[in-house]
C-alpha cells in the first residue's frame, strides 16, 4: 500500500480519499484552463463533486485490487495536484504508467519532481515494480522536467516524433519516458 509521503514543508503525496471529492472538484475547476491543452476534452459533469466522488470510488476499487494508486498532492487541506500510478501489470513485467498535473499556482516549486521521486521510490521499494512509464505531449516540456529518464526532445510534427510517438485525443504527438528502466 502506498504510504503518505512528505515532499516539502506542509506538502504531502497520499492516496485520494472519498472525502476529497469536493476539494478535488474545486482543484479541477481552478485549473480548468491551465490543464485544457494537456487533458482530454471534459464535459461539465467532470468538474462536479459527484463525478469526482464516483471516480475516486472506482479508483479505490482498483487500488484494492492492486491495479493502481490515485494520489493527491496536498498542501495543508488544499489539493494542488493529482498523480496516478495506473495500469499495474504483475508477473515478469512488473510495470505501471504514471500521469500527473500540478496546480497552476504551485508551479516552479519542484513539487512535481519531488512527488515523482517519492512515487518512484514507493513503487520500487514497496510495490516492487521494475518499470514506470510516463507519457507527455511532445511540446509539454514542463511535464517532462520531473522525469528522471526524460525522453529525447522531438520537434512536434517531425518524422521522428511521428515514428517514436503516438497520437492523443487531439491529434498531438505523445512521447514517453521509462522512469524505472527494466
From TrEMBL:
Residues 139-182 are annotated as: Disordered. InterPro entries: Acyl_CoA_acyltransferase, GNAT_dom, N-acetyltransferase. Residues 11-182 form the N-acetyltransferase domain. It comes from the Bacteria. Pfam families: Acetyltransf_3. Belongs to the acetyltransferase family. RimJ subfamily. This is [SSU ribosomal protein S5P]-alanine acetyltransferase. It comes from Microbacterium lacticum.
